[in-house]
Structure formats: C-alpha cells, structure tokens
Specification:
Layout: E1 27-29, H1 37-41, E2 48-50, H2 54-65, E3 69-74, E4 87-91, E5 96-100, E6 104-108, E7 113-119, H3 127-143, E8 146-151, H4 152-157
Parallel strand pairs: 7-8
Antiparallel strand pairs: 1-2, 3-6, 4-5, 6-7
Length: 169
C-alpha cells in the first residue's frame, strides 16, 4: 500500500508568487542566521513564513529546533487553494460547513505526524474553535495523525515538546 502524497503548497493560479504582509517581528525566512543547515532542511516549503502571532512563531521555533522533530511546516498562512490540508467543520454560529486550516504539520523522528493549532488563551473555549478542534481531531484519528491545540501562553511559558511524551498510544 502506498501513502498518498500531501501537497502543502500549490502554485498560485494567477501569479508566479504569493504576496503576504506581516509585522517584521512575525516574519521568518530560510536565511535566518540562527538556523543550522539541518534545521532549514526540516522546513521551508516557502522561503518566507509570516506568522499571525508571537506564540505561533515561537511554536515553529520550538519545533524546528527540537531533536524530536524530523520535519515541520507552517501551513497556517497558506489558506487559498490549499485544500490538501484543510478540515471541513460545521460552524455553529453560521450554520454552515466551512474549511479550517491548521497552523502546522510536523513529522516526528518516531514516524508519527502532528497537526498543530496555536490559539490565543482567550479563544481556546470559543464555540467555533471547539467545533474546528472536534472536526480536526476526528479527521486526525481517522488518518493516524495526532492533533494538538496549544494555548499561546503555554508556548511562551514552556518548551512544549519537553512537556509531553514522544509517542502517543
């Protein structure tokens, strides 16, 4: 049985490149001088990542620098025409089916995969966030992937990969 290929970044339909903007402290490129060549190989399916928040960027930095992580990709900024990594969920506020794009996909050195979402502490218990989480967990279990949602304060105040066991049962 062969595993299907997951496309993390489709070519733009109408242009030769994607355009993004972000605050300077939330931008990270594959030329960041703090990265080792091994760390750069772990990620960067695009040459530049524009994060939404400091905790999101910190999550990426913790994953890319961890010896427990083989690959990590920031997928949260690529939501247009990227259906390969989207989760369909029922939005209880609008009564509609919508698509949700988790922030990261990581392959761990033990061979397991993680789908990762970073949320502000004030959003963790939001009804729509809970609906997205339930749908993502259901999809992840069916796919043999582990879904994790981190509160921003947890990422900032600890090293999240040191707080948890390597393998899941």
């Amino acid at each position: 049985m062969t595993r299907a290929e997951l496309v993390l970044l489709h070519e733009p339909k109408d242009a030769g490149y994607y355009e993004f903007s972000a605050k300077e402290d939330l931008v990270l490129t594959n030329r960041y001088p703090g990265f080792t060549p091994e760390q750069i190989k772990k990620s960067f399916h695009a040459d530049t990542y524009c994060f939404d928040s400091i905790p999101e960027k910190a999550c990426f930095m913790q994953y890319i620098t961890s010896g427990k992580v083989k690959e990590v990709y920031f997928t949260g900024m690529f939501t247009s025409n990227q259906e390969d990594l989207s989760v369909h969920y029922y939005d209880p506020e609008s009564g509609r089916i919508r698509q949700y794009y988790p922030d990261f996909l990581a392959k761990m050195t033990d061979g397991s995969y993680r789908l990762i979402e970073v949320k502000g502490d004030n959003k963790i218990d939001d009804i729509v966030v809970k609906a997205k989480q339930a749908a993502a967990e259901e999809m992840a279990v069916a796919s043999g992937i582990h879904y994790l949602m981190y509160a921003g304060s947890r990422i900032i105040n600890s090293h999240i990969l040191d707080d948890e066991p390597m393998a899941y049962s």
